[in-house]
Write a structure and sequence with these properties.
- This protein has about 290 residues and is an alpha/beta fold.
- It has 2 domains: about 180 residues, Rossmann fold, CATH 3.40.50.150; about 100 residues, DNA polymerase, domain 1 (Orthogonal Bundle).
- Helix 7 packs across helix 10 and helix 11 runs parallel beside helix 12.
């Protein structure tokens, strides 16, 4: 998503050291890699082991050109150190879910197909979305749904979940989507009524906002002088964290302003891929 805009923003050239902080199945990396060869190297990290296996097949080439690791992007400095890399010239984050994650029912990220209520990006995490739904207090559920999902009907949704679970376990995406749909009193335009609740649970299960804040804070540790960092976000909570981090580091003289306003997808892309309509790309350059 936003491949052309990302490639242009990164100002790629042969010989650069590039870090893909969320390599996923390798979509962006496959476009970046040819532009930094010969002489360049790409490091790709991702939490999702299944996605990494796909990326490994897509990014075939000499081992010294592509290095992949299973990790959370908040731990990027440690991963780079393991590879003997001190600095990178370009780095980027794509904070969206991949099509592979959304289209696999047993991952539990989507309600389009009924599947296990999982939502773990890293399958080694102990807590699933089902655990959150079944074990969290009504007050805490309301907070999570309101804060992470920005859902105005959070109280009604939390109450409906608790009433239902008192009668029977809630184990599948279809069951939860139906409960939420009945609890949301006014259906939002263009999106399914359960969208915001699913977003909130996914953020909670994976501690996404905490990891993003930590990753952005650590970025100057390993970004070279004049290096570029780019972030594609998909909802206001993520974008607010990125915007605040970039603005703070600009005030402190760590980053230089590249663009005051976020870059958004083209009309053609949003027409072909409705998921792209909420995407925002922000870019910063480290000062010399």
């Amino acid at each position: 998503m936003m491949v052309g805009e990302l490639v242009e923003a990164l100002d790629l050239k042969p010989g650069l050291m590039v870090l893909d902080c969320s390599v996923g199945s390798g979509g962006h990396a496959a476009e970046v890699l040819p532009r930094i060869l010969p002489g360049g190297r790409l490091v790709g990290i991702d939490w999702d082991e299944e996605a990494l296996r796909v990326a490994e097949g897509k990014l075939s080439g000499p081992r010294e050109e592509v290095l992949l690791a299973r990790a959370n992007f908040a731990d990027a400095p440690e991963i780079l150190a393991e590879f003997g890399i001190k600095k990178v010239d370009r780095m980027y984050y794509d904070l969206g879910l991949s099509s592979m994650q959304l289209d696999t029912p047993d991952r539990g990220f989507s309600f389009r197909s009924d599947g296990a209520l999982d939502m773990r990006m890293d399958r080694s995490l102990r807590r699933t979305a089902a655990d959150v739904v079944m074990k969290t207090s009504e007050r805490e559920l309301e907070r999570v749904i309101r804060e992470y999902g920005e859902e105005r009907w959070a109280r009604s949704v939390a109450r409906a979940i608790v009433r239902t679970r008192q009668k029977k376990p809630i184990r599948t995406t279809g069951e939860l989507a139906e409960i939420v749909s009945r609890a949301v009193r006014r259906r939002p335009r263009r999106i399914h009524p359960a969208t915001r609740t699913f977003q909130a649970l996914r953020i909670q299960v994976n501690s996404e906002l905490e990891h993003l804040s930590r990753a952005l804070e650590r970025t100057p540790e390993f970004l070279s002088s004049g290096g570029v960092v780019a972030v594609i976000s998909f909802h206001s909570l993520e974008d607010r964290i990125v915007k605040t981090d970039f603005r703070d580091k600009q005030r402190r003289g760590i980053y230089e302003t590249v663009s005051k306003k976020p870059i958004t997808p083209s009309a053609d892309e949003t027409r072909e891929n409705p998921r792209a309509r909420s995407a925002k790309l922000r870019v910063a350059r480290k000062g010399h």
